[in-house]
Amino acid sequence: MSDDTFNPNVIELRDVTVTSMRNAALVVAEEVNWSVLPGEFWVVGGQQYSGKSDLLMLAAGLMNPANGTCHVFGSATDSFGEAQLAERLRVGFVFQGGQLFNRLTVAENVALPLRYQKNLTAVESARTVEVLLEMLELKPFADLTPSNVAASWRVRAALARALVLKPELLLLDNPLTGLGARHGQWMLRFLEQLSHGHEWLGGRPLTLVASTDDFRPWQHAQRKFALLHEKKFIPLGSWTEIETTGHAAVRELMALAEETPN
Known about the structure:
Layout: E1 11-19, E2 27-36, E3 41-45, H1 52-59, E4 67-72, E5 75-76, H2 85-88, E6 91-94, H3 106-117, H4 122-135, H5 151-163, E7 169-172, H6 181-196, E8 207-212, E9 224-229, E10 232-237, H7 239-243, H8 248-253
Parallel strand pairs: 3-8, 3-9, 6-7, 7-8
Antiparallel strand pairs: 1-2, 1-4, 4-5, 9-10
């Protein structure tokens, strides 16, 4: 049973060692201490292959820590099982690039959580899926398979799939990667609406965590920022604080590093 009555944090990592999903012997982060409160919007920056994806998957309960403890909604993720199904379904995850099933249509991909977690039939889930597809401007692609849809729309479809169960926590792995200006701006606006309370969630603010290799598009006074660099997780604070930091890795993620002389 969840003990989040006594622990207000949505995510709580204590002295965590994060290993690579692809190679459990490879440590990507050590001694991670991180708390995420309800309604917060965190942006975790890091260079490619710094371990951001692994950290987010661990924070979502999709991986276990090699050391330390990870709690999501008060439940230890290393004990996530059928008894913790309710807690697990409170979490949505958007993988980089979408990671849709190519044998299914866009609509069928979005319906998957309803079909397999709620045991709904295709007919029973159809209306919910239709509403989400319309909301995310995906209706023209509903009957197409992902391979016949541009990458930007595939990311939206993955977002729709993550939202279909109306989660309380949403983690997005590099959601702006490969998006053009139009889709990137749409994504940022939509995530901000989710953060403040979207009608899809009944006006309830959504707790959000996104990863990035470029801080600049995420500028916002109310967001919290962190850095994953050389196996260290470093909370940075607000946008004002990271703008004034002298940390070279942060400056690189803001394209502020001085050019190397010829």
